[in-house]
Amino acid sequence: MKMSDLAKLAGVSKSTVSRALAGSERVTKETRDRIQQLAKDHNYKLDTRARNFRKQDILTIGVLLPSNGRQDWLATDPFVLEMLGSVADALEAKGNHELLLAKHTNNDPSWISEFARTRSVDGIIVIGQSLYHAELNLAAEHQPNMVVWGAQMPEQKYVTVGSDNYLGGKIATEHLLSQGRRHFAFLGDIRYPETKLRYQGYRDALKEAGLDYRTELTTESEHASDAAMESMAELLRREPSFDALIAASDHLAISAIKAITDHGLKVPQDVAVVGYDNITLASYSTPTLSSITQDRQAAGKLLVDTLFTLMEEGKAESTMIETRLMARSSTSAKQ
Amino acid sequence: MKMSDLAKLAGVSKSTVSRALAGSERVTKETRDRIQQLAKDHNYKLDTRARNFRKQDILTIGVLLPSNGRQDWLATDPFVLEMLGSVADALEAKGNHELLLAKHTNNDPSWISEFARTRSVDGIIVIGQSLYHAELNLAAEHQPNMVVWGAQMPEQKYVTVGSDNYLGGKIATEHLLSQGRRHFAFLGDIRYPETKLRYQGYRDALKEAGLDYRTELTTESEHASDAAMESMAELLRREPSFDALIAASDHLAISAIKAITDHGLKVPQDVAVVGYDNITLASYSTPTLSSITQDRQAAGKLLVDTLFTLMEEGKAESTMIETRLMARSSTSAKQ
DNA sequence: TATTATTATGCAACCGGTTGTATTTAAATT
DNA sequence: AATTTAAATACAACCGGTTGCATAATAATA
Predict the structure, then answer these.
(1) pLDDT tens digits for range B244-283
(2) Which of the residues A142, A199, B247, B258 could staple to B253 if both were Cys, CB 3.0 to 4.6 A apart?
(3) What's the start-to-end Cα distance of chain B, in Å?
(4) Across chain B, which distance is largest between two alpha carbons, in Å?
(5) How far is CA A7 from the centre of its chain?
(6) CA distance B204 to chain A (A)
(7) Which one of B50, B85, B229 has the shortest CB-CB distance to A103?
(8) CB under 8 Å to B333, separation ≥6 — which residues?
(9) In whole angstroms, what is the distance from residue A139 CA to residue A116 CA?
């Protein structure tokens, strides 16, 4: 059932139907009501695809969810969903926009630039820079209206929005320093730009505190939790003397806590842990996890706003949102 | 830059360009290559909206993420993201489909039927039945091609895909019964259809074991964690004698564990806990959380397959996927 | 009642591609 | 060289709406 069919039924022209359904004043109230009723009766549904094609007043925004190398990382980290939600909210608030979701499926990262090249979306938001810097640069050539959640990189052709990861790493470290901790370990994979910055903040905080950065206490790990457990277990065997751990994500932190507990040590008494992202569960896990907060609502809004600046003006600057440590702390002694 | 511009540049007709870009054999290889090169040089991008409008070979599937009443529930539960991911994967595997994402924003549930009424998507998948049974029924009238992740309800006009929540509740309870637990409490909000079934499974398992269901040990709670903490704390004050807890979700379970620990009791020694969903973090939290697994990969695939059956044949049946308890257990004594 | 102003509706072009069919061009056959 | 056959390209209609402009219908004015 198309509009012309409905027009025939109503005994009027297509244009009248179009205007009637749009509620235009150019059609008498009676005709309008009659046609609208008729449309309802016959369960007529306007073809949005045709409408949008003609009007071209709805922007389609592609939202991309890359995996983090590991197939399952993305699917498990609630932080990504919260970001997605806040991006959707921010788009919704703008009005007249469609959110086209695309996610990583196979292990070939070229889908990102492929998406940028072939889909004629009006803009792209990538939730998670991951290891795809080069790929994202390539994508940006095809779709200049692209904003990525992540960290600033050298020779970057896309725009990033992120939190101050360097500062975050520093705050986390200083937090534990202020509680008298002196032997640090860092858990995270510094191949990831964001993790690397957090790591640098961590190192600098230690340096400023006059503490030697002890390289052998650093461990690499994927975001996935099994790998994290193993890394942590190995670290504990190798170097059991640290009393403070900075983890690059809450997921890692929670895995680490398990590994530490399994090793027979107590958190936070023996080892204090600080995570990153401050996912909801962090507040409710046992023991409560201290974490660096990245404000997702602000982040989603900033991603969208930045993209719109880009679309309207053709340029935008990479920006950061607030980073802070949540007040609650795993280090407070439990009885 | 539209196709006709490119045609002018190339000195050929629009149709030749169209065919050249589509890689048709009807255009000489030389012309084809020349045009493709030209397109690349001029950074021409085909208008997918126009293409899809004309070809009508791409189905648009709306994926809806309702909130769970509480504004923040959805955004925090990784289970939803995992479901979303697996739905996206399943759609991707089908090919020729677009995933249009829409989520709850304000507190008005009518957006669901509004979406069904006004957006001309080819089908709808709703991830989370929540409390919106009536609303979903309404939506189904506008878009019969609608599949909902949730539980079967009386007088239901939409199709559901879900796991066997009744069985899940039963398995969870029997698991703790087999470990000698005898005093049970249930944490969850039975207004939610899925939770209600889990609760019924729980009650029946107790009945079959010859245990009186002790109504005063049941507590209602939203999925959100603050409310859960409070409910749990109150329950502990009121009735401190139970040694087993069935929680309607892992999120609830983790909150509950915290409340129990804060109360000075030990998990699992004093109170054994079983959750639901088996989110990734459940395996890595401390203590490890037993949980009922719902296979998300299968779920996403089944949601999509069911929707396609519906779209092709005009009818489909509500189905269930496997439910099982994960082997690892919080009840195993820790030393 | 004839004429003008106003309002309601219809016509046809258009959005940017795709595709069946007609036409031109080149190659093959006699 | 003339004719048939095949290959390459062009033409024009179409997808399902929207919208500027023309026209028909109605109301207002002389």
Answers:
(1) 999 999 989 999 999 999 999 999 999 999 999 988 888 8
(2) B247
(3) 71
(4) 86
(5) 47
(6) 30
(7) B85
(8) B268, B269
(9) 5
| C-alpha pair distances (Å), A84 with each of A124, A202, A318, B47, B215 | 13, 28, 19, 26, 40
Q: Which residues in chain A are closer than 8 Å to B281, comparing Cβ atoms? A: 76, 225, 251, 254, 281
DSSP 3-state percent helix, strand, coil across chain B (nearest 5) = 45, 15, 35
How much is the pLDDT for A70? 55
Q: And the tokens for B298?
A: 């299968």
Residue A158 tokens read as 């896309």
Helix (H), strand (E) at residue B146: strand B146-149
Residue with tokens 């009659």: A34
Q: Is the peptide bond before B109 cis (omega within 30 degrees of 0)?
A: no
Residue B327 identity (one-letter amino acid)? A
CB atoms within 10 A of CB B306: 21
Whether residue A26 is predicted with pLDDT greater than 70 in this model: the reply is yes
pLDDT tier at A240, thresholds 50, 70, 90: confident
Using the Cβ of B105 and the Cβ atoms of chain A, whether some distance falls under 8 Å is answered with yes
pLDDT tens digits, one per residue of A316-333: 889 888 877 764 544 433
CA dist A296 and A67 (Å) reads 19
Which one of B81, B92, B257, B293 makes the best mutation probe of the A interface by having the most chain A beta carbons within 10 Å?
Answer: B81
- Residues of chain A found within 8 Å of residue B72, distances taken between Cβ atoms: 280
Chain A interface, mutation test: which of B286, B301, B335, most A Cβ atoms within 10 Å? Answer: B286
B102 chain-A contacts, CB cut-off 8 A: 88, 99
pLDDT of residue B94: 92
Q: Closest approach of chain A CAs to the CA of B149, in angstroms?
A: 18
* Separation CA B171–CA B196 (nearest Å): 15
- pLDDT at position A330 is 44
> In whole angstroms, what is the distance from residue A319 CA to residue A305 CA?
11
Q: What backbone phi and psi angles, to 5 degrees, belong to A186? A: -125, 130
Query: Per-residue pLDDT averaged across B196-220, rounded?
Result: 85
Find the CB nearest A229 among B50, B98, B284.
B284
With distances taken from each CA to the C1' atom of nucleotide D7, the closest residue turns out to be: B26
User: CA A149, CA B28: separation in Å to the nearest integer?
Assistant: 44
Residues in chain B with CB shorter than 8 Å from the CB of A229 are 284
Q: What CA–CA distance (Å, rounded) separates B315 from B331?
A: 45
**pLDDT tier for residue A227 given thresholds of 50, 70 and 90:** confident
Summarize pLDDT for B79-109 with one digit per residue, the tens.
Answer: 888 899 899 999 999 989 999 999 887 778 8
* DSSP of A178-214: HTT---EEEES-TTSHHHHHHHHHHHHHHHHTTPPP-
Cα A133 from chain centroid?
16
